[in-house]
Design brief:
27% of the residues lie in helices and 26% in strands. By secondary structure, the protein is of the alpha+beta class. The longest helix is centred in the middle third of the chain and has 13 residues, at 51-63. The chain starts with 7 loop residues before the first helix and ends in a 5-residue tail after the last strand. The strands form 2 sheets. Strands 4-5-1-6 form a 4-stranded mixed β-sheet, covered by helices on one side.
Length: 107
Amino acid sequence: MEWSELTEGAKAVLEQTRNIKNDKIQIVEFDVGYKQSEEEAGDGEPVSIQEEDYQSLKKFTAENEYNEKYHMARNKNTVKIILMENGKIPENLSDFPVFREYKITEE
């Protein structure tokens, strides 16, 4: 699957895994159903991550053509996507900070 085939929400998530590669692992956590407000988006387009974006990410991480290794884990509507540089999931993931979160906050 190529980058151009991804949904916009999926691209927004994957771009975050590429921004900074610290400690050779990059973690982005998001809630399916997340919609970013205009204020949070600033000058950019608001990010929206819906079920179709999750499905697009799932397909891309399994079939991407860029030789990148990803791991995705979903618990209810919360998903973590991890870009791994050495192709392995570390023993203790809690040692690595989440780089970016797209989380639904209850008000």
